[in-house]
Amino acid sequence: MNRRRRLLFHGTTLSIVALIVLLLCELTGRYRFHSHVSLTRDVDHRPTPNTAEHNSDGIRCGKEARDFAPDDLNIIFLGDSYVYGHNTYPQFAFPLQFEVMARASYPQSSVNVANFGWVSASPYLSLRLLKDIGRKYNPDVIFLCIDMTDFHDDLKYEHLIERPRIAYKMLSLLPGTFFLGEAILGKLTRHGPFDKLYRAVFGFPKDRFFVVNEPLEQTQEYCANILSNINDVFAYATRDLEARCVLVILPRSFQYSARECPDNWEAYAYEVFGPHVYEPFALFDGLKQNVDYPIYSLLDAFRHTTIFPTCLYNDPHWNAAGCKIAAQSLIRIAEKEGVFAPPVSTPGR
């Protein structure tokens, strides 16, 4: 065998081996990360419509869009699993508790509430949903609720849909290989060089809670994404839907209590009362004077409550009591913003 044939033989062999390795990586990735692969096909991952808990639009609401009459006071809550009421019955999720309280205190306002939250949503996805079905609900007020995972999720979803980097171009053909490589590289992020490499390849930190685990000056470039999306929600709500928009920052238990959720499955991800847990609140406090929409936080409401527990035993989401605290706080915010019609006075009263 002459030199040319040997080179051809070795090149063919290496190509076959590379294809086999790539095939094995793809099959392994699709098996181990099947939920991630599914997400690339349906990044919005909205709830299934017409179920026991979801209406025909797939929102967790016992009413249909036709029940939100233009003359009523219609309120939409946008957000993730905390708005949705994950692991609680629908009637205990704080949007519905808010509606019950508002109807009891302000019957003249004819309040209707639509819970547009769903598990692992984010402002970027919420805006997509609002553009698809928001107009049908004739909203007068939109509460956009931000959770601590939204900073990371907004980056991830936007990258999955818009694919701005070379690494994301392979998602259509090799999603299993993509997520396998992401996982391997993610395992090495404890070391500075690999963490920088991950951020360079994928465009954001591996840590889903980076915003509470790092000082604000190190994460501001990644926070710019969610701030832009929040501004887009406000612009669409006010310009296209002619609705008022209020931004509300929701705390997690590790930011207000060391007793909550003793068997927390995600406790490894952050430090209770860690040195940077209040950075998101500092970020939005600094924005209040520079934006056209009001910004509120529920942190103090949970810090000062005498109710315990506010969360589930083994899950950081709020229980019915925690959702009630949120609903009561949001009623006060709505009152401060003049959302409800003034009570009708009666003679002799």
Fold and architecture overview:
The chain is of the alpha/beta class and 349 residues long. It folds into two domains: 12-38 and 166-202, no CATH class; 42-151 and 209-336, Rossmann fold (3-Layer(aba) Sandwich). The protein is 46% helix and 7% strand. It contains 13 helices and five strands. The chain has helices at residues 3-32, 34-41, 81-84, 94-105, 123-133, 150-162, 175-187, 192-202, 210-213, 216-240, 279-285, 299-303, 320-336; strands spanning 73-78, 111-115, 141-146, 244-249, 295-297. A five-stranded parallel β-sheet has the order 2-1-3-4-5, with helices on both faces. The longest helix is centred in the N-terminal third of the chain and has 30 residues, at 3-32.
Give the number of DSSP strands. 5
Might you state the CATH topology name of the largest domain?
Rossmann fold
CATH architecture of the largest domain: 3-Layer(aba) Sandwich
Number of domains: 2
Give the structural class: alpha/beta
Helix run count? 13
* Major sheet description: 5 strands, parallel
Kindly report the spatial arrangement of strands forming the biggest sheet. 2-1-3-4-5
Calculate Rg over CA atoms.
24 Å
Which range best describes the helical content: under 10%, 10-25%, 25-40%, 40-55%, 55-70% or over 70%?
40-55%
Rounded to the nearest angstrom, the distance between the terminal CA atoms is 108 Å
Please provide the ordered H/E string of secondary-structure elements: HHEHHEHEHHHHHEHEHH
Would you identify the CATH H-level superfamily of the largest domain? SGNH hydrolase
What's the rounded overall pLDDT mean?
92
What proportion of the residues form beta strands (DSSP E)? 5-15%
Write down the CATH class of the largest domain. Alpha Beta
Shape: elongated
